[in-house]
Amino acid sequence: MTNPKHARDTERGRYYTDPAGGPDLVSVTNVIDTAVNKSMALVPWGVKVTLEYALDRWNVITDRVADDRPGLTKELKAVHRDVREQAADLGDRVHGAAEARVLGAPVADDPIVSPYVAQLDIWLASWGVDLNEHIEATEITCLHRRLGYAGTADLMIWLPTGPGGRLELWLIDYKSSATRSAKSVYPENTLQLAALRYCETVLLPDDTEQPMPRIERTGVLNLRAGSHALVPMPADRVAHRAFRGALETTRWLHAAPSTYPALYAPGHEPAPRRRATTRKAA
Fold first, then answer.
1. Nearest Cα to 208, choosing from 16, 3, 19, 25?
2. 20 Cβ partners below 8 Å, 6+ apart?
3. CA–CA separation, 59 vs 41, rounded Å?
4. Burial 36-75 (b: 16+ CB within 10 A, else e)
């Protein structure tokens, strides 16, 4: 996961520190991770990657079933987590390279990431993007203090998608994957884009503020090693209302106690636990 300037990780997930001194703001991705149930997609995926891992090593695993069952079990349980961490690391590297590319800065030499950057170059060229004229912002912090959340927009860019080729301001989120189709998106991508689109304020690199630009279109730019696709997403006010519901759920969950006292029938209360004491040897 990338580390935006004002973001910090807490036991309740990522929050943003307000440079103006106000309350911390829950991150958009934290809201989605907390309040949107992804198990219907993640559980089958986790089973799939674990099964593929086992089948690719079946001859070795067969020998370990009897000899090292606890170690093998631990290894197999970690497969899906390791794959997710590798995917997250790839995403961070692609995001960093994409930011450097649109800023006209040098891109780090990374053979794994280079094909993704090449696809970004192809996409920029296909739309006739001039980096000096058409890039509005990249990796910019967006705040909604009244609702109490913040996030980072990957890219704001002018594209000739309006009637007669009129330039429109797009809010775009990069998504990278080594396996998924370039046309595939998730419904929660719309919530993320809507949350950012309707923020009130953006922070410039020196922490001065400006009103959030008026975004006309939103989409996901899927970057793959051998392909790419810009997928428009309906991040409208309806989607923003749905995000606000998820935001309220997140606030409740983050504030809720993790344990509650048990209720016992009269006369059946458990005896108080004796405190352990440590005595020094005489």
1. 19
2. 209
3. 29
4. beeeeeeeeebeebbeebbeeeeeebeeeeeeeeeebeeb
User: Token match 């800023």: residue?
Assistant: 103
The predicted-structure confidence for 82-112, as pLDDT tens digits, reads as follows: 766 777 788 889 999 999 999 999 998 899 9
Mean of all residue pLDDT scores within the chain = 90
Q: Which amino acid is at 76?
A: L
- 139 phi-psi bin (left φ>0, alpha ψ -120 to 50, beta other): left
- On whether the CB atoms of residues 228 and 221 are closer than 8 A, the answer is yes
Using one digit for the tens of pLDDT, what is the confidence trace for 117-138? 999 999 999 999 999 999 999 9
CA 160 from centre of chain? 28
Task: State how far the alpha carbon of 173 is from the alpha carbons of 57, 249, 261, in Å.
Answer: 37, 24, 44
Q: Tell me the CA distances in angstroms from 147 to 5, 116, 122, 141, 265, one per residue in order.
A: 21, 35, 38, 15, 44
pTM for this predicted structure? 0.84
- pLDDT averaged over 10-residue windows placed end to end, the chain, 282 residues: 81 94 95 84 73 81 80 82 74 92 91 95 97 96 97 97 97 91 93 98 94 97 96 97 97 93 92 71 50
